[in-house]
Amino acid sequence: MDWMGRCVGNKVRRAMSEAEIGASGLARELGMAEGMLLVRLVAPSTFTVAELILVSAVLDCDVAGLLPCDPRRSICALTGCR
Ligand SMILES: [Zn+2]
To answer: What distances in angstroms separate CA 15 from CA 19, 32, 73, 74, one per listed residue?
Structure first.
């Protein structure tokens, strides 16, 4: 299941750079310790769905874009996710 954490971490990092928000800023908005956020961004840890919904609200993006790629597909939508 490590690919899932890697995939979600990649998507959140991409959304963070698009929103021009760093880890400290996002952690503050989420009310999450920055260390916890950094752990979440790296496999094998991953965000819970509730956390992803909050992340999407803070970053003003679609939560569906932060969910892991469909595991039934052989190739991840993001290069290097898997
Ligand atoms: Zn992916």
So the answer is: 6, 17, 22, 23
Compute the half-sphere exposure of residue 53: CA atoms within 13 Å on the CB side of its CA: 3
The model's pTM: 0.86
Whether residue 27 lies inside any domain: the answer is yes
Range of the domain at 40: 2-66
What's the CA-to-centroid distance between 30 and ligand 1, angstroms?
23
Residue 50 CA to ligand 1 centre (angstroms)? 19
Ligand 1 centroid vs 31 CA: distance in angstroms? 26
pLDDT per residue as tens digits for the range 42-73:
878 889 999 999 999 999 999 999 988 877 76
